[in-house]
Design brief:
By secondary structure, the chain is of the alpha+beta class. It is built from twelve helices and ten strands. The strands form four sheets. Strands 6-7-9-10 form a four-stranded antiparallel beta sheet. A two-stranded antiparallel sheet has the order 1-2. The termini are far apart.
Length: 511
């Protein structure tokens, strides 16, 4: 009877138990899924720089690219560069802030840079995930099972034989290995992810140029606001002097009440202008603080003024040639084209055979002292036979993605060319406006002085003074606007050339 029990155990129970153990083992499941067949993880998802697109192996990495007009994509947009992460707390004192310090703060705290840095990390993580598909995967398992079997429940009724077997236990300690030997799709997906990662890094570098442009523009806006406030204060003093003279002349009986009223209207208009300009400066300072990560309740004072440095002998063709070498977003677009080309190869490689090896070695038995080593080694070659529709669909998606990448690159090149030429035209036009506005300020100053002298001498009323003062304010405002336009145009040219972060001082000039 014991020999019959042993033969029944070897012939029926042990094979069934071992099959059940192998069927539920997570190691065996993962070993079959890394072979690179149509259902493998290598083909179920592909990376897109900062996201994962499921269901196709042909969309390997479309990272957000930037041009001079802003950002393309849903994650990081041009408005993103207006935000930041707050660093520090209100110091309780007025913080002196130069243009260089503002830009350095922006490069550390601006939201666009931070988000793009996270996108680089995501792209690198996706690259590592694809790399793992090419490397050996080793897993270890340890299991202890205790079981009791009723043979009668399986229809096995043997005379003079106890149908209850057990309880018995099985201990299994095992290591499993899987390795792709030949999988062209996985290899091409990894190469595509490498280029997507390179594109993400280049895009992050280009985002720093966008920060310089955004912060520099916000700083120059505040500088222009301060210049307007200074001009209004000067006009306010002149209006106050004119008003005092009109009152004195009226009290002396040498001028009519109309001169007093006219001077009072001019004085109050200047007071209103000062209130409006002061409020605008406060709002623009908030926008600057948002871009560089300052607490919004932190008071700060701008230490740099708007310089005027002319840029002569600007050649659009030479500038465009320089931009082709220095613009990081164009280099990122080229990397995306290369990534799309390898993703396309991955799609076409789905029809190729896939070879992989797998195996496991372990020790199994009732106890550790009563166990024996077992192993399994498997070499497998799988060939897709009939998946025509799926292959054709992936290939069409891959071709469309490649065409889109090439179109984006071509358009980005032309956009850079257009941005350079537009910036040069703006610089040349603004330079002429600055010279004309400066001359107008000198003439308006002289006219105002002469009108004041005539009114003070009693030769004329204060109507010419009021008119001259209006002309003086308009000339000052035009000069401030022209100077701002000139500096922003130079900063835009530096951005269009891809050198805003490194050479913005050379374009803006001194303090």
């Amino acid at each position: 009877m014991p020999s019959r029990r042993l033969s029944l155990w070897n012939a029926v129970i042990l094979p069934a138990f071992a099959f059940g153990l192998f069927a539920v083992s997570p190691t065996s499941s993962s070993g079959q899924n890394t072979g690179g067949s149509s259902g493998s993880p290598a083909n179920s998802s592909t990376t897109t720089g900062a996201s994962v697109t499921s269901g196709s192996a042909v969309s390997a990495g479309q990272t957000n690219l930037y041009n001079a007009s802003g950002a393309n994509g849903a994650t990081v947009t041009s408005d993103t560069f207006k935000g930041s992460l707050i660093a520090g707390k209100n110091t309780g004192a007025v913080l002196p802030l130069s243009l260089d310090e503002a830009i350095q703060r922006g490069l550390r705290q601006n939201l666009g840079v931070i988000l793009q840095g996270s996108a680089v990390q995501a792209a690198n993580g996706a690259r590592l995930e694809q790399l793992q598909q090419l490397l050996p995967t080793i897993t270890g398992t340890a299991s202890i099972q205790v079981q009791q079997v009723d043979l009668a429940s399986f229809g096995l009724k043997i005379p003079n034989f106890n149908p209850i077997i057990g309880p018995f236990q099985v201990e299994d300690f095992r290591a499993s290995l899987t390795q792709n030997v030949l999988n062209i799709t996985t290899l091409q997906n990894y190469i595509a992810s490498k280029h997507s990662f390179a594109a993400a890094r280049l895009t992050a570098e280009d985002a720093r140029d966008m920060v310089v442009l955004t912060v520099g523009n916000a700083y120059l806006v505040c500088v222009a606001d301060q210049a307007r406030i200074e001009a209004i204060n000067s006009a306010l003093k002149t209006a106050q002097l004119t008003y005092d003279q009109a009152v004195a002349s009226h009290d002396a009986g040498t001028s009519p009440r109309l001169d007093v009223l006219r001077a009072q209207v001019d004085l109050q208009s200047e007071q209103q202008n000062l209130i409006s300009a002061t409020n605008q400066l406060a709002k623009d300072k908030i926008a600057l603080a948002r871009a560089i990560g300052l607490p919004l309740d932190q008071q700060f004072a701008l230490t740099d003024t708007a310089p005027y440095k002319s840029l002569d002998n600007l050649d659009p063709n030479l500038s465009f040639d320089q931009a082709l070498k220095t613009r990081k977003d164009l280099q990122a677009a080229e990397e995306q084209v290369t990534s799309a080309e390898h993703a396309r190869r991955a799609a076409y490689a789905d029809r190729y055979p896939v070879a992989n090896i797998s195996g496991n070695f372990g020790d199994i038995g009732e106890t550790v002292a009563h166990s024996h080593g077992t192993y399994t080694a498997t070499g497998e070659v799988s060939v897709p036979i009939l998946q025509i529709v799926r292959d054709r669909g992936e290939q069409q998606v891959a071709n469309a993605s490649l065409d889109q990448s090439k179109a984006r690159l071509s358009d980005s090149v032309q956009q850079v060319n257009a941005d350079i030429r537009s910036a040069i035209l703006d610089i040349q036009s603004a330079a002429k406006l600055v010279e004309a506005a400066r001359s107008n300020v000198d003439l308006a100053t002289e006219a105002l002085s002469e009108a004041q002298q005539r009114f003070h001498a009693g030769v004329a009323d204060n109507l010419p003074v009021s008119q001259a003062q209006t002309s003086f304010e308009q000339a000052n405002d035009q000069y401030i606007s022209a100077l701002y336009q000139h500096n922003v145009a130079k900063l835009s040219l530096a951005r269009a050339l891809g050198v805003a972060q490194t050479n913005y001082k050379d374009y803006l000039g001194g303090k």
